[in-house]
Amino acid sequence: xxxxxxxxxxxxxxxxxxxxxxxxxxxxxxxxxxxxxxxxxxxxxxxxxxxxxxxxxxxxxxxxxxxxxxxxxxxxxxxxxxxxxxxxxxxxxxxxxxxxxxxxxxxxxxxxxxxxxxxxxxxxxxxxxxxxxxxxxxxxxxxxxxxxxxxxxxxxxxxxxxxxxxxxxxxxxxxxxxxxxxxxxxxxxxxxxxxxxxxxxxxxxxxxxxxxxxxxxxxxxxxxxxxxxxxxxxxxxxxxxxxxxxxxxxxxxxxxxxxxxxxxxxxxxxxxxxxxxxxxxxxxxxxxxxxxxxxxxxxxxxxxxxxxxx
Length: 310
Known about the structure:
The protein is α+β, with helices and mostly antiparallel strands and 310 residues long. The chain has helices at 18-28, 91-100, 165-173, 227-240, 298-304, and strands spanning 8-15, 32-39, 42-51, 60-65, 78-86, 107-111, 114-120, 126-131, 153-161, 177-182, 185-189, 198-203, 217-224, 248-249, 253-259, 265-273. The chain is 16% helix and 36% strand.
C-alpha cells in the first residue's frame, strides 16, 4: 500500500464558454482565478485554474473551455459530483447567494452525517457544498464571500461506476481506507491528508456510460509532495500493471496519468513548484501565461482567446 498520496490536488473539467465559466467561479463561488494559461495540448483554448489565494493543492478547480462543445452526458465511468467544504452554519448564506445569482439545481440534504447543498454549474456540472466544522484551511476572502462562509477547498469527489470493486481496490492500494457507507455509497478516506481527503464510490450497474463534453470532469488529480514521491507512485502503479504515462511538465506541477478500471482518468500531480513560479502572489491569474513551447503563438492567442474579467 502506498503512503505518498495526500488527498486531492485538482479536478479538471470541460466548459463551453470561458467568460461564463470565469464569472461563475470568481463571482458566484468567490474563488480566486490563480492561473490563466492555455491547454498545453490544444493551445487555442484556455486552461483556467480557480482556488484559494495561492492555489493550494486540494483547492483547485480547473477548466478547459472549448467554444461550442456539446454538453456531456452524465453516466458511469466519470466523476459525478465535486464537493467543496464550507464552514458549519454557512449553508443558509449559500442558498441565499445561489438564489440571488440564479444558480441552478439547488437542493438541500445530508450525506454521511453532514449538511449538504447540491447545485449545478453553468454547463450542468455536478457540485455540492458540505458543512465541515473540522476544516480549518485558510480561505480567499477577496472574492466577495466572507471568512465565515468562504469555500475552504475540496471536501470530496464521487465516482460513478458500473462496478466499484476494482476501483475500490485501487484506492486502497493508493493509501485510502474504507471509512463509511451511506445509502449504498462507499466513502474512502486518506489518513493524514491535505483536507481534500475523501473519495465516494457510487455503483450504478444499470446506468449508461458517460460521454465527455461540457460539464464533464476530464480527470481527477491526487497530490504528492514532490517528484521523488511521484516517481515512487508511478513505479508502484506500473509494477501493478497499470499503463502510466511518462512524467509531463505542466509548468505548475508535474503530472502522470492512468485510466482506472472503472474508466475514470486519474492523475498524480506534485505540489511543487506551485502557481507562483511565474507570477507574484498578489497578481496570480491576471496575465496570460504560456508554456515555453507555445510562447511563439502569443500574439495570435491573445487576439483569439476571449477576454476575461480580472
